[in-house]
User: Fold this.
Amino acid sequence: MIRAQVFLVTALLFSTSAAVPAIAADATCVLPNASIPAGANTTDPNAPFFIDTAGLDLKTTPPTRDPHNANYPAATVLPDGQLPPINSDGNFIIGPTHRPSPETVVQANVPHGTVHTLIMTSTDSVIYRPGMVRDDMPGCRNSAVNSASTAPGDLSDLLVSASHAGSWSREVDVYVPAGYVAGTAASFIVFGDGGKHSFFNEQMLFNVLDNLIHAHKLPPMVAIGIGAGGQDAQGSERGREYDTVSGAYAEWVEQEVLPRVERAAHVRLTTNPDRRATMGFSSSAAAAFTMAWFRPDLYHRVLGYSPTMVNQQWPHDSSLPGGAWQYHDAWPGPARQNLTVSGNAVTPANGSNGAPLIPNAPRKPIRFWFEAGDRDLFYPIGPLADGMHDWTAANEDMARVLAAKGYHYQFIFSRNAGHVDEATEAQTMASALEWLWKGYPAPVH
Assistant:
């Protein structure tokens, strides 16, 4: 199934690459949206693509959400500066002050892990060759997405004609803990948006691992930071990898990344899914959850900051038209018949292709820590008034459906925090990692 999807995307890329016109260098940048899109349905919850504006302070950009919104699950309000206990599940409200924890900085007398770097390119890949490239205006990030249109009658289907086949090169940084014994099977955490040129501060994570492993609060583990494939959002290689709701990214990591890591860093990685974790930021946080959802035989532990549990999947998949939004909520578009194809026969199918995934699947062995800010992303792409691009609402609904299915999760609503908020990361990462690995006994030293 995954390989078939890869071939389909490959065919789409090659078929569009020759038809994309050049973009003038002096064109004016198309700025991202950050409020209610023009013409959005904000009044009729029974009509398609309803956007719920309850609890929004529209005087800020993006809007600030009220953590006590009646539409959000009930949460425990913690005193400013306090974090939830590492043995507790559920929903918590923190902030507005976010001071870094002491584990984020180098501490005296704590041994440091070593970092190995390797470069991967699309020419060496099977699953992601060719890559995906989008022609934005020079110097104007995401301009081709912000100026795109949607399919007639379907606000959830963004048309990005500026995307075509291309190549990618990425950095992979591998942290090996101090004292690793060659040949032993190491626990590990793999995270997206890695590499030295990422917006995420890898060194902070490595400091936290040094300090918590030394304090016996975490098991010794390898950390693998995989650079994104390039650009952002629909029509990009990063968006293709992180926002696709399938097992493709997990397969790529397993088949193409981890063997390279073992050779380059001279480590042996465990195959025990309870000793493997995933982590990410924004779309790579959605990918981290997707890796465990589709491959629970590989991963049980997931950590995410501002997970993109919204409709970012591209190319548009008619069998899952809401993308990652459908983990937690039904597709809010017009009702339509779900069909299956067998040979030349097309017949009605049971159920709906707009049904949410988590409520309709048996509980999986996934442990999930995640966070969203009160000023997280809100409909950043103007044409997508699709009812599925509110990051905070999406993660509140993730908390709701996870609780209903009995999952172990901890969800943090961070006040005075934006999208992938660096101050919140520095405050919470050590505690989040301790919670994430709860139940896995660290070896006695």
Summary: The helical segments are 2-17, 143-146, 202-214, 237-243, 248-265, 283-294, 391-404, 422-436.
